[in-house]
Each structure stands twice: as C-alpha cells, then as structure tokens.
C-alpha cells in the first residue's frame, strides 16, 4: 500500500481481517492522528474497520458466529 510506504508509522493503524484479509483503518486513528495528512489519506483510501478480539472483521465474525445479517 502506498500510504504505508510513504509513512510506515501509519501501518499500526491499518487493520487486516485474519479471515478474509479485508483492510481498513483502525478507529484508534481518530484519537491519535485526527486532523493530520496521514488521517485524511487513511480515511480517503480505506474504510473504517474494527476488529474483534480474534482479529476478525464484523462480517466474518457474523458468519462464523452464525448470526443473522440484521445483527
């Protein structure tokens, strides 16, 4: 990813799902880098994505846990 090469420090704010490999920016970036060029670039290039304690995105956790799409 270009952003990680441009500024390797932002790599810690990029989440990758352990199941499907989807990537998104961590919500933690909003508290740590808010109003910086790095934040704006992350927000522009990646969706916001939280991971659960097992490193899964919301969709993979839903499928693996057998929950309905409405949850």
Notes on the protein architecture:
With 71 residues, the chain is mainly alpha-helical. It has one domain. 37% of the residues lie in helices and 8% in strands. It contains four helices and two strands, in the order H-E-E-H-H-H. The chain has a two-stranded antiparallel ribbon with strand order 1-2. A hairpin with a 6-residue loop joins strand 1 and strand 2. The chain is elongated, with a radius of gyration of 13 Å.
Output the helix-strand order.
HEEHHH
How would a crystallographer describe the biggest sheet?
2 strands, antiparallel
Secondary-structure-based class equals mainly alpha
The proportion of strand residues reads: 5-15%
Quaternary assembly: single chain
* Number of helical stretches of at least 4 residues: 4
Q: How many structural domains in the coordinates?
A: 1
Form type: elongated
What keyword list fits this structure?
single chain; 71 residues; mainly alpha; two-stranded antiparallel sheet; 4 helices; 37% helix; 8% strand
Summarize the structure.
This protein is mainly alpha-helical. The chain contains 4 helices and 2 strands.
Give a topology summary.
Elements (H helix, E strand, L loop, with lengths): L1 H5 L7 E3 L6 E3 L3 H4 L4 H9 L12 H8 L6
Antiparallel strand pairs: 1-2
């Amino acid at each position: 990813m270009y952003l990680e090469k441009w500024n390797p420090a932002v790599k810690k704010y990029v989440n990758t799902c352990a199941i499907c490999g989807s990537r998104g920016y961590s919500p933690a970036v909003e508290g740590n880098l808010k109003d910086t060029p790095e934040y704006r670039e992350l927000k522009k290039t990646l969706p916001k994505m939280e991971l659960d304690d097992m490193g899964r995105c919301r969709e993979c956790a839903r499928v693996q846990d057998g929950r309905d799409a409405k949850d």
